[in-house]
Specification:
The structure is a homodimer.
Chain A: E1 5-10, H1 14-26, E2 31-36, H2 85-89, H3 99-112, E3 122-123, E4 126-134, E5 139-146, E6 151-157, E7 159-162, E8 184-187, E9 201-205, H4 209-220, E10 225-229, E11 243-246, E12 249-253, E13 256-259, E14 264-266, E15 269-272, E16 300-301, E17 305-306, E18 314-316, H5 326-340, H6 351-366, H7 371-389, H8 399-411, H9 444-448
Parallel strand pairs in A: 1-2, 1-7, 2-3, 7-18, 8-15, 9-10, 9-15, 10-11
Antiparallel strand pairs in A: 4-5, 5-6, 12-13, 13-14, 16-17
Helix pairs in contact in A: 1-5, 5-7, 7-8
Chain lengths: 449, 449
């Protein structure tokens, strides 16, 4: 290969773009970067499409974005230190923005803060079919297809960064009777608009972020009633009238849902908010992350570098259960970029040391008691990533916002999005806003002004 | 390779299974056959699942089957000569059976007429990721993944039969305003139950089999009104009250659909019955059929043998626009099986002759005036396949049934399924049945007795 390093980034979502952003910042003359993106636009799941199942090329619809989605975490917990919300909007805005406001913010940084036009690195409508690594030549072969021409081609790379996301392979448990349920049954990945469930009695299966938000969205947009069903433990929020929690489904009999506590409820639609499974089908077996979702999935040094095949030239981004999200991706993207370009002097040379380090984190993660422990781990993870890279030292300080946010949610699940937070970077206190539950206008203009 | 021939069949749907059936019948000792099937059951789209988008392994949901689907063609046009409906059900049954009745019939033949247990040839839950052909070694390499273990492996084959179907890649045109339409929008591939549209005003986009049937199903199951939209020409059936045809969509404005003739209609849901595109992503470029759907897609000798790469060891099944369906697959499966095992003495040795022959058919197809010409081509195609193989000579005679069937549809689109047809193999006249539009019981028991 002509240049010293040739880096392949798979996916131009928030993760892949932050890696690209930092490579562009560093502009290392001996590092060439190419990003393959399946769709025709960047920022991945932060784009909305009516399509479900397959896209216009017959590829899997990657994102599960829905209309009227507002951030469920404070924007001050996902800010970019070098481009704050103040920088983008020129004024204080409220803490829990709708989708478009966040997408616009991310795009603003990509356009305004990058040295060159980042689009020039990206091969659009190009899906990666397969990645193999040859030990002998120390090279990755990436097989990709240009979806517009149908042409398949192979490229060689010295490094690969997997940034395809963790919300594309819906976990679909089955329940006795689900096939004969006479209403609509979807996974939340195919949920596009709560307004479609207006007037209906809805069963929401699950007890995590999706279940919580889909239940609230359905109520907000006029569902008649919502019953949620948990497997291990209830969400235990002080639910507004119209939402109630039940344990696991025992059996579905026509429209009647029978739960294991002996109770039952008749519903019109079922929405499985049962989460996602890691899915990296385009990687050969020994390159493929296989793990359960957590704040520190096993197998990754610094939560990023794939250890299991020993070659240390493959990276994963954003595979963590996320609190800090964009900030974390950013710290991670910078670390990966520095690691690849060899500008991190203090990293261990020895893979055994890396594995020991990784195990320390995995052990800590295994001992967590609650979400507050998870938040602390993620803050420390960002600190750990930042130490060698010089990433903004205040980034982990958003940890306090997340602790407060969890308390806000427990205090009132309907109003937690109305609370203002203070930016750890700009010190700006968020603006106040119309209560989320009563606000049906999610345009940028309405939210910002 | 140990045996003389090693054949890979991709897909255990109605096509793949008929190929497997004939290999089993011939039981050629120097031919080994393996079938890779993505799901855990055979007969492909004739199985129903509530799932849309992805299956339990995160693979694309292959089938677009919906509840309450009844055959839209007479069963006498898709019968197996060596196992008639009489043979399976032991009595005359009506001509237009619901899904379960057809699936049960196909399964009956696979179980009762095969020499050995066909399941022993099938690797279940195994998805083919990539197929390449090496000119030098004259061998195909098939890369597949065992979805249950996540293990990827490579196998070598002398021949490959692609039987993955043509109804898995939805064609998704876009329309101005579709992203902001406030109701539900799906492609018919994700249509699972007409009852979900009860009481609604539905827009059905398209003017072919799916559009016709989805519109009728929605009306049958209580939709308030259905407007269909055609691109090139209307279906022109004598629609019952509640269904009307409009030309192409100009713009979607909220719930209001504006058509190019200046008319408009407010609707609650949009169902795109806009067909499918060929999709064979698991094949390398020069093995991949690229064509538009027709009764004789270009590039295939005898509608089956891939000519474009010149190796003549790759086969496609069921890529034709279908009238005779199962019968055609069966004649085709037998021809492929005989061709591979070298028991067709009269086939041309020369690829140029094959190409000339293929061009003759493609030219004839290009000159068709209407569906009746298409039906005649397909009957002659089955005759052409049968000549060398000794397939039942009466098979093409069902051509007359299809001509009558088209007339029945034009006469009355609601009652055409109530007409009885006579089997060309058994001579049995179909039984009469409760009118389809009033029959909501699609169980085998109700239909047969």
């Amino acid at each position: 290969m002509s240049s010293k390093r040739k880096v392949c980034i798979i996916g131009a979502g928030p993760c892949g773009m932050t890696a690209l952003f930092h490579f562009d910042q560093i502009s290392d003359p001996s590092t060439e970067v190419v990003c393959f993106e399946k769709s025709d636009t960047w920022l991945g799941l932060w784009n909305f499409t009516w399509m479900t199942g397959t896209d216009e090329f017959g590829e899997l619809c990657h994102g599960g974005m829905y209309k009227h989605l507002w951030s469920n975490g404070p924007k001050e917990g996902l800010e970019y230190p070098d481009y704050t919300f103040d920088d983008h909007y020129g004024k204080a805005i409220p803490s829990f923005p709708p989708r478009r406001v966040l997408r616009d913010y991310m795009e603003g940084r990509l356009v305004k803060k990058s040295k060159s036009d980042l689009k020039r690195y990206i091969k659009w409508n190009t899906v990666v079919r397969y990645v193999t690594y040859n030990q002998k030549s120390d090279v990755f072969t990436v097989t990709a297809e240009d979806l517009k021409t149908g042409r398949t081609f192979e490229n060689k790379f010295t490094h690969v960064i997997v940034a395809t996301g963790i919300f594309n392979n819906p976990n679909k448990p089955t329940f006795d009777g689900i096939e004969t349920f006479p209403g609509r049954t979807i996974h939340s990945h195919d949920f596009r608009d709560a307004a479609q469930f207006k007037g209906q009695r809805v069963l929401v299966v699950g007890a995590s972020y999706s279940a919580e938000d889909v239940a609230l969205q359905c109520l907000k947009f006029g569902a008649k009633s919502i019953v949620t069903s948990y497997r291990s433990k209830p969400m235990n929020f002080k639910w507004p009238s119209g939402i109630e929690e039940r344990p696991l489904i025992k059996k579905i009999d026509g429209k009647m849902i029978n739960f294991i506590d002996g109770s039952s409820a008749e519903v019109d639609s079922i929405i499985l908010c049962t989460g996602y499974k890691y899915s990296f089908p385009c990687l050969e077996d020994n390159l493929r992350l296989v793990s359960t979702l957590s704040v520190y999935p096993a197998g990754l040094y610094k939560g990023s570098l794939w250890l299991n095949d020993g070659n240390r030239k493959l990276f994963y981004m954003g595979t963590q259960d996320q609190y800090f999200s964009f900030t974390m991706f950013d710290a991670q993207g910078l670390w990966i970029c520095r690691y690849i370009t060899g500008t991190l002097p203090n990293e261990p040379k020895n893979i055994e040391e890396m594995k020991k380090e990784e195990q320390k984190w995995v052990q800590r993660r295994k001992n967590v008691k609650d979400c507050h422990d998870d938040i602390d781990i993620q803050a420390d993870f960002i600190k750990d990533l930042s130490d060698g890279t010089g990433y903004h030292p205040d980034a982990p300080n958003a940890v306090e916002l997340f602790h407060k946010w969890e308390h806000d949610k427990m205090a009132n699940i309907v109003t937690y999005r109305d609370q203002p937070f203070k930016s750890v970077f700009s010190g700006t206190m968020a603006a106040q806003h119309k209560p989320w539950f009563q606000d049906f206008d999610d345009s940028i203009d309405s939210f910002v002004n």
